[in-house]
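Backbones bend. Shown next:

***
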Amino acid sequence: MSVSRKGKSITFTADADTYAGVVFVAGLTMQVAGGSAGDRLRITDSGGSVIADYLVMSATDNADLWAGRAPQFYDSVLIEDFPSGTCVLTMFVD
């Protein structure tokens, strides 16, 4: 598990990473290098609701997974599926 929180961001770098507790998500980005097209990133909350579901487009991919949505509360966060290669998921919280 490789979850770290610094100020207003939480960084996830491994499959099955979990952040316990209520978070107010204001943004979500992903950067992957050395991955494979078609790899999946899926993030859920403790109730199983999908926060983000994304298919990697190429070996190197950067994605804004929040895309301007309004900030939202979630009770805990779990990485269900994580791309291969080196991947960093950053969740911006308020």
